[in-house]
Amino acid sequence: MKDVYITRTSKFLPNDPVDNEEMEERLGIVNGKTSKARRVVLRNNQIKTRYYALNDKGEITHNNAQLTKEAIQLLCDEGFTVENIQLLSCGTGSPDQILPSHAAMVHGFLKNGNLEINSPSGACCSGMNALKYGYLAIKSGQNTNAVCTGSERASSWMKSNIFENEIEHLKKLEETPILAFNKDFLRWMLSDGAGAFLLEDQPNGDIPLKIEWMEGYSYAGEIEACMYAGGDKLDTGLLKSWSEYPSEQWAQKSLFAIKQDVKLLAENILVKGVDSLKKTLEKHNVKPEDITYYLPHISSYYFKENLYQEMKNNDIEIPWENWFMNLKKVGNIGAASIYIMLEELVTSGNLKKGDKILLSVPESARFSYTYAYLTVC
């Protein structure tokens, strides 16, 4: 089995950063009234700026595949071009279409000859699953390099026009035309962007990072869906697919909007996260004091203190000074967040040989967790 190294990192954040007061102008106002949930959600998540693939008129500037293509091109130079890529593995929770796959669309924009592609589906963990596919392909000797990506273009799913038909339908029924909190909540949480890693079987580059191991856990066998799109949640907890509804109800129910069961999130995301973290550290005999940098993807600073306390309760406390986060500046970019976080750490100039980095990514869709442990070479 070969060693695997992250030898290059890149990110692409579209347009200018958008502050909290500009958000609703970019995404649009629903039913002519500003959101009552916006300030509460922003106060809790503490995000100050984020990026949208929308211009100041709310017009789309990039689709998801284009964002990903831009990040990949930023990996490349004369020493490594897009034509040198052997494997393209692209994860996202917000693909531009159901078919073709996200990686196929990215490959279409790259136009770099024939190569293997892989498109993990899901939410935040899809970016890490894309990384694991590339990691295993190189480790097994099938490839000597792979480009792995995480990306999101959630803004187009959150624009006000997505909810216009639902609001009009409620008016006709003489019901209060207000957007449900499980939909409005995520409008103030999610951002756009893409990150990319080049993986190789040799420690090339200025700061190569050896991938020691990767682990994943799912709790879907215990817990119902929490974050979802393309369907609606029944009282039984089951999801009913968009394909089982008459087409006129797709817009009336905003079936393609991203929704979140906030109560279910609060009850499970930290408990299961620390449970899976403890499992993976014990499996690989890693102690908290071994970790130089802990990179947790969290959706909101609301969870930070409680996550630390839960870790402390389970005797796996990682000291605050070892945490590295950039949520306040770039927002929650789902599958891309961990890529962009690591890229910022790598380019910070603070890493030194022998440092250990733990990547930690939760996914609230149905409570999955993925981890990667890296050594600076």
UniProtKB/TrEMBL annotation:
GO terms for biological process: secondary metabolite biosynthetic process. The keyword Acyltransferase applies. Keywords: Acyltransferase, Transferase. GO terms for molecular function: acyltransferase activity. Gene3D superfamilies: 3.40.47.10. It holds the Pfam family ACP_syn_III_C. The keyword Transferase applies. Residues 281-360 form the Beta-ketoacyl-[acyl-carrier-protein] synthase III C-terminal domain. NCBIfam families: PRK06816.1 (NF005293). This is Beta-ketoacyl-[acyl-carrier-protein] synthase III C-terminal domain-containing protein. It comes from Aquimarina muelleri. The gene is darB.
